[in-house]
Each structure stands twice: as structure tokens, then as C-alpha cells.
Design goal:
Elements: E1 9-13, E2 17-23, E3 26-35, E4 39-45, E5 52-59, E6 65-73, E7 76-81, E8 86-91
Antiparallel strand pairs: 1-8, 2-7, 3-6, 3-8, 4-5, 4-7
């Protein structure tokens, strides 16, 4: 059954950059690696690429797939992509 309360927002990131996905509290549902590149993706519960690390994902050229987190963040969700992985972040 369709439940609008369970819908997530999304953000696509496709370059080596630091991205503030959401300021304030929320929930990280998943990270989908659309086009993988060898490197790293670091997720922070912070407004910057410092502070509390949620996860460090090491990617290879064959790391395509979806990682489910379903975790809460309190300060913000910031993602540091060290290489140009094309990823989609699902969050609320």
C-alpha cells in the first residue's frame, strides 16, 4: 500500500566533491552506486566533511549496487566523494 510518509528524497552526486545533502536531523535510507569508480565515499553526521563518520565506503570499478543504511543523523548529512562515482542518496 502506498504511504506518503515513507517516501524519501534523493540527491544525485556525480563528481569528486563535498556535498551537504541535508542540514538538520533526518534519516539516511540508502546509497546507490550507479557508475562506480575506484575510490572512497565518506558519509558524515555533520554540516561539513568532518565530525561524526556514519560510514566509509571503499569502491572499485565493479562496486555497482545499493547499500541500505536506515540510520538516523542529527546534525546533517554530508557526503565526501573522493572520486567521480555517480551515486544516488536516498534520505528523509
Amino acid at each position: 500500500m502506498f504511504s506518503p510518509q515513507r517516501l524519501s528524497a534523493y540527491r544525485n552526486i556525480n563528481s569528486a566533491t563535498t556535498t551537504l545533502v541535508k542540514a538538520g536531523g533526518g534519516a539516511l535510507h540508502s546509497i546507490t552506486i550507479n557508475t562506480p569508480v575506484a575510490g572512497a565515499i565518506t558519509l558524515f553526521d555533520s554540516l561539513t566533511a568532518t565530525g561524526t563518520t556514519i560510514a566509509l565506503i571503499t569502491t572499485t570499478a565493479t562496486s555497482q549496487g545499493t547499500l541500505i543504511f536506515d540510520v538516523e543523523f542529527r546534525t546533517g548529512l554530508t557526503i565526501l566523494t573522493a572520486t567521480a562515482n555517480d551515486i544516488t542518496v536516498s534520505y528523509s
